[in-house]
Amino acid sequence: MRTKRVTFRHPWLPYLLVLPQLIITVVFFIWPASQALYQSVLQQDPFGLKVTFVGMDNFIELFHDPLYLASFKTTVIFASATAFLSLSLALLLAVVADSVVKGKGFYQGVMIWPYAVAPAVAGVLWWFMFNPTVGIMAYVIDQTGYKWNHFLNGTDAMILITISAAWKQISYNFLFFLAGLQAIPKSLIEAAAIDAAGPIKRFWTIIFPLLSPTTFFLLVVNIVFAFFETFAIVHATTAGGPGQDTTILVYKVWRDAFEALDLGGSAAQSVILMIIVIAMTVIQFRYIERKVEY
Amino acid sequence: MATLKLINAGKTYPNGFEALSNINLDVKDGEFTVLVGPSGCGKSTLLRMVAGLEEVTTGDIMIGDRIVNNLDPASRKIAMVFQNYALYPHMTVYNNMAYGLKNLGTPKEEIRERVNYAAKLLGIEEYLPRRPRQLSGGQRQRVAMGRAIVRKPDIFLFDEPLSNLDAKLRSQMRIEIRKLQRELAVTAMYVTHDQVEAMTMADTIVVLSDGHIEQIGTPKQIYHHPNSTFVAEFIGSPPMNLLKATHTGNGTISLPGDNKITVDRKDLADGELLLGIRPEDIEIAAKKSAKTLGVDIELVEELGAGNILHTKLGTSPIVISPRTGFDTEKQQLEIKLPDAKLHFFASGDGKRL
């Protein structure tokens, strides 16, 4: 691909044009991020009266803290379950939507709605449906003989936040998958049909591989979402409980800072999260640029 | 290897649009049939019906002695080359060619043999480990052909396979496809909108217009005896001249600009008709005589090997591609319309008279 080179007559004009974006980035990202970085090497008493420089102590302590390591594990489980669930359901829905003939626009339109729901609202919605006392889903599950209670059972709680988070991401994934499916030339599918591949085989040998750039992109986006943008869902449904069972990393950052008032430790956690997200972004750009385009 | 028969085949879309009607066609074993017509005439639809990619709404399609209307594409023993090649971008050339055989459960050893054979035939052996995007248009075209060949189909179907290539490569591939088809002696059906491809490649040309067959015939028949003004104008470049004329009886025909000629066609009814003559059939006369017509030269197109003259007879344009030299300085020219080369069409429906 050739990029067009644009030349500005005044040398300061391009800088002026990117200035608003730069200001936003500095104020809302660089500044707080550097604050977190700074905080992570300090220790502060709960009343903010005394600040001590402690070097890497906050980090060392974190990695010796079984609760933090457990939270790491919880997050990995939560993120992979959420990504898998939302990706597979979205792909299924996109494939169906792509083959729908009548009412296509309506169906596709409706599919987008969940994305417009705020995470906290989505959390509360599912929390109600699965509420052991009044929830319809809990009632249905009860009928099968299983006593659903996400207030007491850690696995139930994990399933609940996974469903809530995945449900919100399905719309987004659906859109990308649908666009990806529509970008596959129809003649390829027809050629495969002539080449004696049935619909299922066609899907796995032609369509799915051709969607892999989309799938990989969405995988990263979904993991990032599960890691970093699910605070509201967790807060509105399980509040990290029962016990620590759904305390994912972002939730722990908040809890340790604003409930346990361990600012230094919390800052160290957010620095680790920052490193993770940077790493994932790098992987994504590297990989997408190199391999995925056909 | 097989025959292909279409019996009253037709296609009507659910929205009521009749894409094809009453298609009767008999393709002999090993014959190369070209479907030609302007865009929207239904030629691709017809091919896709044979392939099983479009449903047949009326009539029957027979491959060999089987009616294949309700068979899926895979069980029709056909292979198709698509306009955009439709190569699987994520597979190597080898796997592209082997894909169909794998799906049919062909033993690995045989797959390798057949793919290698086809690759050798097409001269693409060295590209086998590559992916389609590392190939040029012509090479992709060959891979698409190879994918069709390895399946040893009864019928080859080509859907405008050359339209994405540049002119030079196109004429080269034209010959290659034709040679290959003869060598393999496989029945072939080829769709194109390019009349040159139709003329040069076909054993039989099927001219389609608006969802029906205008004419079926060998290239020669189609060229020299077009059944209608549609075929006359569609085949041949530059197209046949059609002049508004009136038959006034006894073979006397009055032409634009108060010109008259006499032809040996006593069977023509009196009244208006269209007189057709191919640009290369018009002779240039050295001298004015009772049998010549005077035309005004408006424009001369130099083609190197020859010229195309755009002239006017009275107010009607006539295009001439003279076989003999002529004086380029002149503004006027005397021409002769040889009797044997004249075509007459009804002025209403354009049918041959």
Structure report:
The complex is a heterodimer of chains A (294) and B (353). Chain A has helices spanning 13-39, 57-63, 66-99, 104-112, 119-129, 136-143, 154-183, 186-194, 199-228, 231-237, 249-258, 263-290; strands spanning 42-44, 51-53. By secondary structure, chain A is mainly α. Chain A has a two-stranded antiparallel sheet. The radius of gyration of chain A is 23 Å and the shape is globular. The two termini of chain A are 13 Å apart. Chain B folds into 2 domains: 4-234, Rossmann fold; 241-346, Nucleic acid-binding proteins (OB fold (Dihydrolipoamide Acetyltransferase, E2P), Beta Barrel). In chain B, strands 6-7-8-3-9-10 form a 6-stranded mixed beta sheet, sandwiched between helices. A 5-stranded antiparallel beta sheet of chain B has the order 13-12-11-14-20. In chain B, helix 2 crosses helix 3, helix 2 (93-103) packs parallel to helix 4 (137-150) and helix 3 (108-122) packs across helix 4. The longest helix of chain B is centred in the middle third of the chain and has 18 residues, at 167-184. Chain A binds chain B through residues 185, 187-188, 190-197, 201, 205-206, 209-210, 212, 294, and chain B through 51-53, 72-74, 78-80, 82-84, 86-90, 99-100, 103-104, 131, 133, 147, 151.
Task: List the keywords.
heterodimer, A: 294 residues, mainly alpha, MetI-like fold, B: 353 residues, alpha+beta, OB fold (Dihydrolipoamide Acetyltransferase, E2P), 2 domains, 6-stranded mixed sheet
